[in-house]
Amino acid sequence: MRVDAFDFDLPPERIALRPARPRDAARMLVVQGDAMSDAGVRDLPSLLRTGDCLVFNDTRVIPAQLEGRRGDARIGATLHKRIDLRRWQAFVRNAKRLRVGETVDFGAGVEAVAEDRLADGSVILAFSGDEPVELLLERAGTMPLPPYIAGKRPTDADDRSDYQTMFAREDGAVAAPTAALHFTPELLAALEAAGILTETLTLHVGAGTFLPVKADDTDDHVMHAEWGRIDAATAERLNAVRARGGRVIAVGTTSLRLLESAAHDTGEIAPFEGDTAIFITPGYRFKAIDGLMTNFHLPRSTLFMLVSALMGLETMQSAYSHAIDEGYRFYSYGDASLLLPQR
């Protein structure tokens, strides 16, 4: 499909620069088949059925944004995929001033050697010393806010907690699974009381999620791979939910993409561990999920393509037009949508 089919105009004032407080006070647009209704995140227990299961991503965002110097050149790096204990793949700003074999000093005793340059323009950085890289990043790194927020205000201390979900425990993401930012212990308790189940999986979200689609046709776009894991016990419980007639509702596109990567054509979810570069566009047949809770996405983005594949392009164009007209807040710190396709 042509990428411009997924374009729409978004007024800049609709981009949220801070999250709702408390988190579960955000608004939520509910799309069921072709019908739309305005609700709030706190209404979620009444919008789902007893026996449904919400699936969260427990990845934890690391301070993966680094600023340093190579000689007199300023070098910026955003880590986006771990290779091994000391090496990370990174998008590098001012990369023309950095040659393979040169060292970048990121301050606070943190240095990395540019070990290789890949075909997509990213650089493999090998961190020096014996300290775990996670400790180095805690000293020298900052939270990698999306460019549409970072371009309007500096990262601050609040972002250390605001840009982390309550489920975060597995270090490795450089972007938050933002749909889960809306959840609080109080909301989880209300969901449990309503008989709604929860499960977690892990997908380490990479910075590639922020990259624009530069191709004119979706067939020509290449997704960056991200590492994920679903253990056998979780897969078994999710299959049991559907066998009992419950619905598997992914919380966030990251959870959805990993579930679909792990599913057989029969719809059975298998244990999974490894990289996935799944790219979901209209025409895709969903196998593992029955619904999605997600935030509002960028024009022409792979994520708007994904929700259009789930609900239909015309439905999502109408839903986003309604959200803009009604003052919903967009993107990572914005409001939510609950998408329930008719099966």
Automatic annotation (TrEMBL):
Catalytic activity: 7-aminomethyl-7-carbaguanosine(34) in tRNA + S-adenosyl-L-methionine = epoxyqueuosine(34) in tRNA + adenine + L-methionine + 2 H(+)
UniProt-listed Pfam families: Queuosine_synth
Pathway assigned to this chain's UniProt record: tRNA modification; tRNA-queuosine biosynthesis
Keyword set, alphabetical order: Cytoplasm, Queuosine biosynthesis, S-adenosyl-L-methionine, Transferase
Protein's cellular compartments: Cytoplasm
Keyword Coiled coil: no
InterPro entries: QueA (IPR003699), QueA_dom1 (IPR042118), QueA_dom2 (IPR042119), QueA_sf (IPR036100)
Enzyme class (EC, first level): transferase
Position of the signal peptide: none
Gene3D superfamilies reported in the protein's UniProt record: QueA-like (2.40.10.240)
EC number: 2.4.99.17
Subunit structure and binding partners: Monomer.
Function comment: Transfers and isomerizes the ribose moiety from AdoMet to the 7-aminomethyl group of 7-deazaguanine (preQ1-tRNA) to give epoxyqueuosine (oQ-tRNA).
Family from the record: Belongs to the QueA family.
Protein name stated in the entry: S-adenosylmethionine:tRNA ribosyltransferase-isomerase
Chain's gene name: queA
